[in-house]
Design goal:
Largest sheet of chain A: none
Structural class of chain A: mainly alpha
Radius of gyration of chain B: 24 Å
Mean pLDDT of chain A: 87
Shape of chain B: elongated
Oligomer: heterodimer
Strand content of chain A: under 5%
Low-confidence stretches of chain B: none
Radius of gyration of chain A: 19 Å
Number of helices of chain A: 13
Largest sheet of chain B: 7 strands, mixed
Number of helices of chain B: 10
Number of strands of chain B: 15
Distance between the termini of chain A: 34 Å
Order of helices and strands of chain A: HHHHHHHHHHHHH
Helix content of chain A: over 70%
Mean pLDDT of chain B: 85
Low-confidence stretches of chain A: none
Strand content of chain B: 25-35%
């Protein structure tokens, strides 16, 4: 018996290989790190003049929020090709005719892109370490915040995979993913902007609950809320499940 | 090895293939031949699980394609019309990936890559990036991918299309080597291609199997089955005779030739290369050589002999006949 993990692992390894031999990985990670560095530079300068005792902690809370927005911009680059490009180039035929389940293909691709986001987040580690060196931010919220960022990244990637699986054009997939990601980021400010007059209690709560970034606030303050965990994990599961169906449906067309 | 029964595929209201049935035995090399848009690729994609059928059944190596898809896929190697390559990978990395998703055991992967690389003549390209290879080499990488898991059946879609003549010869040679060990099913719209590599031709036209032709080693038709029943294959030594006058008396004279089994009037038979002019098709008894007797008979009856030709339907004519008849 072959190990059960073998097929998704093979897909995952190939995806990671392709990320690094094609320029995708570098074109995503490098600008991400530059923008994060730029943000830290400005925020650190402001915080260094502050007399507040929580300046360093506040800096990190803001930093994690900013990183989440940058993640929203970067993640479509990682997922837009995954199905769309394979379908266009015909390499999907190899996966589709191999003894490997649709689910394994989707999981392999998902974990590969998640691995890249993990690497990206890990590469930003010097920034908080730098803050740690000159200030005294709480360590726990930073760690929990990064955990939240990773989950948020998972959501954006699973959404990107779903959109890529619906298209055969990587540009369309990328732009749509970006739009969807930004929408999920912005809806948290929708109730505030429109006021209670138009959005009542439950509706308002649902809208806010749907926002990806809104859930990150808790994480960045060091709180792991059950409802946020549930939201992120179910978001990922639903997107991946729909991707599996969407990918399989191409056989029926 | 490969069996299809009543395969039908509809794309919305457009009919891709209709009631396609055939049976390919282990070790056969079969060409699926037909004009563009006849349903060749649709058939292959169904047989390789790339696509589902609207109705019908099919199996490979005894596994039902729709119910035991995973087992069936282990026994099929498939080269789509566009080789399913990742241009950024090296040949070796690509083949390693193909082997691992096709379920080759880890300890056997290195050996399988060596075998496939050797068979497909890719030794010098192992470390090269696929996207930098010429079209012929890419095609070979595609074939290597289809063989990496030692499938019992290999299915190739237009394996030589778009290649230059030298590359075509190489790929044909490769396909012939494959045919010695495995069941091969390939599509082509070029008759010579099929004749060179296959022992049997399935002619597909407008989504239906129009004919099933078996060839001998020389690439000549030995038996023909068509959708509308089997037309008799002419016996060896049969001739076509055109003579003036084309009348009853002449026909009666021809019937008396010793060794002539039957005399039929025929005209415009494209399979026999008979154009406008009416002629007699005279079938010879087994082993009889009636050519001389035919000429003599016409002359003795005071007629003019216009044409005396062996009546062997050329494969090309037969193919055109099968594909045009249907279209008419």
């Amino acid at each position: 018996m072959r190990r059960l993990t073998a097929p998704p692992l093979a897909v995952c390894k190939r995806e990671i290989y392709s990320y690094f031999v094609s320029p995708v990985a570098y074109f995503t990670i490098v600008p991400y790190l530059l923008l994060c560095g730029f943000f830290f530079y400005i925020a650190f300068n402001i915080a260094s003049r502050s007399r507040s005792e929580t300046a360093a902690s506040d800096l990190m809370i803001n930093a994690i929020q900013t990183m989440s927005v940058l993640l929203t911009l970067a993640s479509p680059l990682l997922t837009m090709r995954s199905f769309a490009e394979e379908r266009r180039a015909g390499s999907m035929e190899l996966l589709a005719t191999s003894p490997i389940r649709e689910r394994d293909i989707v999981l392999g691709k998902f974990f590969a892109s998640w691995f890249l986001v993990g690497a990206m987040l890990l590469a930003t580690a010097p920034y908080p370490l730098f803050v740690q060196r000159y200030g005294n931010p709480d360590a726990l919220p930073i760690l929990v915040g990064y955990f939240g960022l990773a989950l948020l990244g998972g959501c954006l990637l699973s959404l990107g995979l779903l959109i890529s699986s619906l298209s055969s054009n990587q540009i369309v997939a990328g732009v749509t993913t970006l739009g969807a990601g930004l929408f999920l980021w912005m809806i948290q400010s929708l109730p505030a902007a429109s006021g209670t007059a138009t959005l009542y209690g439950t509706v308002r709560e649902i809208v806010v609950y749907m926002s990806l970034q809104q859930h990150l606030t808790g994480f960045s303050q060091g709180v792991v809320a059950l409802k946020s965990m549930v939201y992120y994990l179910s978001f990922i599961s639903v997107c991946l499940y729909l991707t599996t169906i969407s990918s399989a449906s191409f056989r029926w067309k | 090895m490969i069996e299809a029964e009543g395969l039908t595929k509809r794309y919305g209201s457009y009919l891709g293939i209709e009631q396609v049935s055939f049976k390919i035995d282990a070790g056969e090399a079969v060409g699926l031949l037909g004009p563009n848009g006849a349903g060749k690729t649709t058939t292959l994609r169904i047989l390789t699980c790339a696509m589902s059928a609207t109705s019908g059944r099919a199996s490979v190596a005894g596994y039902d394609l729709f119910k035991e898809s995973m087992q069936a896929r282990r026994h099929i190697g498939y080269l789509p019309e566009t080789p399913p390559l990742y241009p950024e990978m090296t040949v070796e990395a690509y083949l390693r990936f193909a082997a691992s998703i096709k379920g080759v055991a880890r300890r056997r992967i290195a050996g399988r890559i060596n075998d496939a690389v050797e068979l497909c003549g890719l030794e010098e390209m192992r470390k090269r990036v696929v996207g930098h290879l010429s079209k012929g080499y890419r095609q070979r990488v595609g074939i290597a991918q289809a063989l990496i898991h030692e499938p019992k059946a290999v299915v190739l879609d237009e394996p030589t299309s778009g290649l230059d003549p030298a590359q075509i010869v190489e790929i044909r040679g490769l396909i012939q080597r494959l045919g010695q060990e495995r069941t091969v099913l390939l599509t082509t719209h070029i008759l010579a291609e099929a004749q060179a590599s296959c022992g049997r031709l399935l002619v597909i036209n407008r989504g239906r199997i129009a004919g099933d032709i078996r060839l001998n080693a020389a690439g000549e038709a030995v038996s023909i089955q068509t959708e509308n029943g089997a037309p008799p294959l002419l016996s060896e030594g049969s001739v076509v005779v055109a003579a003036r006058p084309f009348d009853e008396a002449m026909e009666a004279r021809l019937r008396q030739i010793p060794g002539a089994a039957s005399v039929r009037r025929t005209s415009k038979d494209s399979a026999l290369d008979i154009q406008e002019e009416p002629a007699w098709l005279i079938e010879a008894e087994q082993g009889a050589d009636i050519r001389g007797a035919c000429a003599a008979a016409v002359v003795e009856a005071g007629g003019e002999l216009l044409k005396l030709a062996p009546a062997r339907p050329s494969l090309e004519r037969l193919f055109l006949n099968l594909t045009q008849q249907e279209a008419a």
